[in-house]
Amino acid sequence: QVQVVESGGGLVQAGGSLGLSCAASGRILSINAMGWYRQAPGKQRELVAAITSGGSTSYADSVKGRFTISRHNAKNTVYLTMNSLKPEDTAVYYCNAEIQERTMGMVSTRSYWGQGTQVTVSS
Q: pLDDT of 20-60, one tens digit each?
């Protein structure tokens, strides 16, 4: 079975920094894109940042210049470094990974989500 587990997050004052990490484990053949999403109370889940297996990155306009996504392919891990945090960054942050796996002799690609980690930025 494949698992995706996040760590990090917490409470920080506006202007501060936090780091998130997300590790995938299990019977993984390869991982394509990995990304971070967030969902604030009463709002839809939105893409924050994504990174391909080759290292190409994309960011939501609201976090450009403040957040950095990176990954360690050998460790099946993706990171999100968040600087200059704002109260509007408060949300539950979720990791997503497009994982290629072999199940019952067949290779397939599935999207896996982490359990979510709370990030709270106080003003």
A: 999 999 999 999 999 999 999 999 999 999 999 999 999 99
Nearest to 70 by CA among 99, 100, 34: 34
Q: Quick one: CA dihedral 108, 109, 111, 115, positive or negative?
A: positive
d(CA 80, CA 4): 15
**Amino acid sitting at position 63:** V
CA separation for the pair 14, 85 (Å, rounded):
5
Cβ atoms of residues 7 and 13 within 8 Å: no
**How far apart are alpha carbons 5 and 103 in whole angstroms?**
21
Q: Which amino acid is at 30?
A: S
CA distances 62 to 58, 67, 77, 82, Å, are 12, 9, 24, 12
Beta bridge partners of 46: 38
Q: Given pLDDT bands bounded at 50, 70 and 90, which one contains residue 78?
A: very high
